[in-house]
Amino acid sequence: MIFITAKFQIRPEHADQWPEISRDFTEATRGEEGCLWFDWSRSLDDPTEYVLVEAFRDDVADAAHVRPDHFKAAQKTLPPYLASTPRIVNASVPQDDWSLLGEMAVE
Predict the structure, then answer these.
(1) Among 13, 22, 39, 77, which one is most buried in terms of CB atoms within 10 A?
(2) Residue 95 CB burial class (10 angstroms; 0-12, 13-18, ≥19)
């Protein structure tokens, strides 16, 4: 699986609306074949920071993610709302779903 985490710094005047601003891109990406998840979270410490956690089945699905029209549209429509270029970690991991956090197992 290709596991990606990206941090998006949103302009303060748009931070509260970011879920709606990014909705079309989010929903379209979630519908891509090979997309395992595409989930946004908002930082508890910085209300202008959103963290995107996404995963794709394999390298083929990851490469396909940047080709659809909705990705190209997002490249044009989302940057005006950003305060800086997003930062990303992209890794191939030998699993296909979340693992359990054994140190906090719920009995």
Answers:
(1) 22
(2) exposed
pLDDT in tens, 3-34: 999 999 999 999 999 999 999 999 999 999 99
Mean pLDDT score, 50-78: 94
CB neighbours of 9 closer than 8 A, spacing ≥ 6?
48, 49, 82, 83, 84, 86
- Is there a contact between 64 and 1 (Cβ–Cβ < 8 Å)? no
φ, ψ (nearest 5 deg) of residue 58: -165, -175
Continuous segment of H or E residues that includes residue 56: strand 49-56
d(CA 23, CA 69) in angstroms, rounded, equals: 15
Helix locations, the chain, DSSP H: 18-21, 23-30, 59-65, 69-77
Please tell me whether residue 7 adopts helix, strand or coil conformation. strand
* Cα–Cα distance, 81 to 8 (Å, whole number): 10
Q: Does residue 62 surpass a pLDDT of 90?
A: no
